[in-house]
Amino acid sequence: MSELGFLIIFPFAVAVLLMLLKKDSILRTVVVTVGALAEMAVAVLFSLSYVIHGDFPGESAYLTHTASTDKVIAVCEALLMILVFSQAIRFRKYYILLLSAAGTLPMLWLDLTGIGESMKPHIRIDVLTMIMVLIVGIVGSLICIYAVGYIRDYHVHHDDVTDRSGYFLAMLFVFLGAMMGLIGSDNLSWMYFFWEITSVCSFLLIGYSRTGEAVTNSFRALWMNLLGGCGFMAAILFCVLVANIYNLSELLRFSEIPGLVIFPVSMLAFAALTKSAQMPFSRWLLGAMVAPTPTSALLHSATMVKAGVYLLIRLSPLLHGSLPGTMVTATGGFTFFAASLLAITVSDGKKVLAYSTISNLGLIAAAAGCGVKSAMWAGIMLLIFHAVTKSVMFMAVGAYENSTGSRDVEDMHGMIVRVPKLAFVMTVGIFGMSVVPLGMCVAKWAALRGFIDSGNVYLIMFLCFGSASTLFYWVKWLGKIFCVSKDSERQEDRVRKTEWAAIYPLTIMTVALCFLYPLISSRILIPYLNDWMPGHSKDVFSASITEGDFIIMAIMIICICLLPVIMVIVNRIQDRRVLSYMSGFNTGDDRSFYDSEGNRQMQHLSNWYMQDLFGEKKILIPCLAVSAAFIILIMSNCAIRGLFL
Amino acid sequence: MMNVYSIIAIAAYLICAPFAASIFSGVDRIVTARMQGRKGPGLMQAWWDLMKLFSKESTTVNDIQKVLVVAHCFFAVFSGAVFFGGGDLLLVFFSLTMAEVFLILAAYSVNAAYSEIGAQRELLQMMAYEPMILLTAVGFYMSTGSFGVAQIIKTDIPLVLKMPGFFIGFCFILIVKLRKSPFDIATSHHAHQEIIKGLTGDLSGRIYGLSELAELYEEVLMLGMIGLFFITSDPLSPVYAIIAVSAVMFVMSFTDNIFPRVKWEVLLKLAWIVTFFAGGTNLLLLTLI
Amino acid sequence: MKISRSPWLLHYDGSSCNGCDIEVLAATTPRFDVERFGIINTGNPKHADIFLCTGGINAQNQDVVRQIYDQMPDPKVVLACGICACDGGIFKDCYNILGGTDTVIPVDVYVPGCAVRPEALIDGVIKALAILDDKKARMKKEGYRSLTSEEYRKKRETADA
């Protein structure tokens, strides 16, 4: 318990310290590194002690008397609202005032009148908490370390942006703390408080550079997340005033009375969908791309969007077979498919990653919405794999951008020769994201079984089509990396040490997870799920992959790992080198050819983007419209049933 | 798990598959020739071609081309071994996908126009047939309760009766997978393709032989999939399966002969539409029953 | 195992009048059906065993022919198909014509004719197959390899001098 308290409060303390250290100095690097390492160490310690000493896989609840803390939270809430108000007035976005007030004022009212005060545990720790603490603690802290070197390079490349890097790093730590708070809280008002901090924090980070585009995008992120926050608030109001529920875990116990919980569950699910950038709210995540990389990496992989799907997984038992569950599965499945198509059509590396994130989160949401055990297993596994692998990808793209000045996939042509180390990292990342038997695909496989178990035909279809398009954009990216341009030379390695310090551990973790996940599954996840959802025992638990399957996959992974060795062996036989085939017009360097007048022409190879078929201009708006209409339909249905029937 | 039967089956597959596929391909070429009023090559022509390729010098363009093709060949053979060893269908397809990815990377690595177009078209072909392949596996799971080939063949009635939609869809994407006209856009069995053999254009000699060998193994695997629709616990059923496979092969040769190559958009749209309607309808029916 | 069981052709049209090219294609039609020998008219030098060249060599295509020839893996044979490919034919004295195929690469079989008849062509290919087998045997025994176009050029220069 005290560890969790440390995990929440410590990052805020570091943030305050960093605010004071405005100038870039060795001291600041040390503060960030030590702070992040301490956070990481405590997170690991916390989970270890929980697994060893705690009443595993049960749960423990703490902190029943919190009157004084509640006062502090109320004051912070008010401050947050004032901050948002000031920004909204400054940039003349007055609709923000309405959204922010609608979310915060009821909260203050509940706090000040004491109606919202509960004598129940505010903090609850179980296996899911532990997993999330590990993800946020390890991945998030590494991203903070990475950010130190990155933001320095960022200001070298963008001298038009005012250097407020102390503030930037502080915000990252605030983020970490808020995330830890969100994971640990069981009390709905506390969750809401941390939820709002992450929203505002991401708004401030996205707008960091204060360019016109950044401001627009940051406000888009803000209004979408505040809208979700309003949904959260509506759920709290209903719970407190009508159902006399204060905690999330209590809400979960009400699954026998579907009529009572349908309204708060649908509102919470709605909030989670906005947070995890599901369609039609996907655009804020793409807008977040203009922010410097650590923000987007942090937003994507470790925190912001994971908060949404985390809440969905928590709600999963209530979603099984219910109307809000249909909303979550259909929106998630549709987002998985549509975002993967859109990812094919863009060439900006970060944008591809953003769409891919939206797409994968859709899959997690769909798995959570099914509410059967095997699907939840898949959802949690996807969450773990995605957090690690995606942050590797983001960091690699960011490092590539800082060392070559471009993050376009087209410009990654021939990376394997020019920047072999980064190319290796990216290859691990892409393999982890897309190719069986590594990481993501195993979980995807389990998700498929889960969808079949829950009998969702449309989800199976979405998954099958979505996997195909997912494969397309990853492999074409991988292909670009693997192009070997003749006589190209290795570039100087300009990636900073702090960046490598974050990238290498995550890369190793990506590979290690492929070997470790059966252990995680059998020792931690399966006991937990059995304990959590004993009522659902009639579901065939088919997600557990048999031993024979595991041996086969292990053989495959080992073979992939052995490829470099095999390469050395097969290349012992020296073959005659020939030019690549260019109809006989190769000028001799494999890069240019003679045209019909005998002039030298450079060849330019570009990937397919199929924009005529499903470009952003063509399908984005219809997709958003369809999903928005769908969500409005289901939400209004839930509201009518919940409030009036 | 592994037992004596699966080990025998795997061994038989590893040894016999290239011969079997050569015979299939030989029959295919002879039938094609007869349809065109020609005599056609010998029955084992594919085998001779393969042997010739292995006896030739191999030339390379870069250092990584060779290892990627080796990996391609390994995983192609591996997926067939998993299939005939009675393993998990999804694992078979995932391994097959990985094999394809390595071949595509080999073509990309060359950094030449024809190879790269071939690689991207191959990728598109994968995108076109992947949904149907996954759906077929799902179909087998829903009608027998297992993804394992060993369990699937214990069924009492031929599965094609339960999953005719999947069968039609699978036959359709088989045209793509086996590189038959009109969908042989990435690389073709017919010479003088507009992109000069695209995908495999910059492979030569032994290395090209490896990719051809992998293709023979893949062909046997795909025909095995067709057989899976007909195999039951009845000991006579392999005979029906072979008849069915031959019939499917004949239809393949026929379409190969009468259709000109289509554009990639047409391929993608057609394959997805067929998958959606044939596979989707059948899937819906299986869930309802 | 004889390599000649599966000879794959690469057909290159130099500066021919297209007469020979039509005949080459005629050889693949049902009447002559070269596929019965296992012959495939592949379009790719990296897959081909026999380089079948029609028409003379001119200033524009000499480098192309050289490059394509060099890209073919050993063992390989070159077949000059039609009189123009053999020595330049009626275009021999044209301002742009350098001569037959053997001005740039070593030729193993010459098949004359204007245009070459499919029967003659098939005869030539059969001859070429014997050479192909022979080269394969020498490759195994004495590590034989074909001259590259560059080596051939030097050899010719010294011979001329």
How would you describe this protein?
The complex is a heterotrimer of chains A (645), B (289) and C (161). Chain A is 74% helix and 2% strand. In chain A, strand 4 and strand 5 form a beta hairpin. Chain A has one domain. Chain B is an all-alpha fold and 289 residues long. Chain B has one domain. Chain B is globular. Chain C has 161 residues and is an alpha/beta fold. Chain C is 37% helix and 17% strand. Chains in contact: A-B, A-C, B-C. Chains A and B meet through helix 19, helix 20, helix 22 and strand 3 of A and strand 1, helix 3, helix 4, helix 5 and helix 10 of B. Strand 3 of chain A pairs parallel with strand 1 of chain B, so a sheet runs across the interface.
Write a short abstract of this structure.
Chain A contains 24 helices and five strands. Chain A has 645 residues and is mostly helical. Chain C is an alpha/beta fold.
Fold topology:
The complex is a heterotrimer of chains A (645), B (289) and C (161).
Chain A (H helix, E strand, L loop, with lengths): L1 H19 L5 H28 L6 E3 L4 H24 L3 H20 L9 E3 L1 H31 L7 H20 L3 H19 L5 H32 L4 H6 L4 H18 L7 H5 L5 H10 L1 H16 L3 H22 L4 H22 L2 H32 L10 H4 L1 H15 L4 H16 L2 H26 L14 H36 L14 H24 L5 E2 L14 E3 L5 E3 L8 H4 L1 H29 L1
Antiparallel strand pairs in A: 1-2, 4-5
Helix pairs in contact in A: 1-2, 1-6, 2-5, 3-4, 3-7, 4-8, 5-6, 5-12, 5-16, 5-21, 6-7, 7-8, 8-10, 10-13, 10-14, 10-24, 12-16, 13-14, 13-15, 13-16, 14-15, 14-20, 14-24, 15-16, 15-20, 16-18, 16-19, 16-21, 18-20, 18-21
Chain B lengths: L3 H32 L9 H11 L3 E2 L4 H20 L4 H21 L3 H32 L4 H4 L11 H14 L27 H24 L8 H22 L5 H25 L1
Helix pairs in contact in B: 1-3, 1-8, 1-9, 2-8, 3-4, 3-8, 4-5, 5-7, 5-10, 7-10, 8-9
Chain C lengths: L7 E6 L5 H8 L13 E3 L7 E5 L2 E2 L3 H10 L5 E5 L1 H5 L9 E3 L9 E3 L6 H25 L6 H12 L1
Parallel strand pairs in C: 1-2, 1-3, 3-5, 5-7
Antiparallel strand pairs in C: 4-6
- For the residues shown, what is the average pLDDT of chain A? 82
Low-confidence stretches of chain B: none
User: Major sheet of chain A: order of its strands?
Assistant: 1-2
In which range does the helix fraction of chain A lie? over 70%
Count the beta strands of chain B: 1
Provide the descriptors you would attach to this structure in a database record.
heterotrimer, A: 645 residues, mainly alpha, two-stranded antiparallel sheet, two-stranded antiparallel ribbon, 24 helices, 5 strands, C: 161 residues, alpha/beta, Rossmann fold, five-stranded parallel sheet, 5 helices, globular
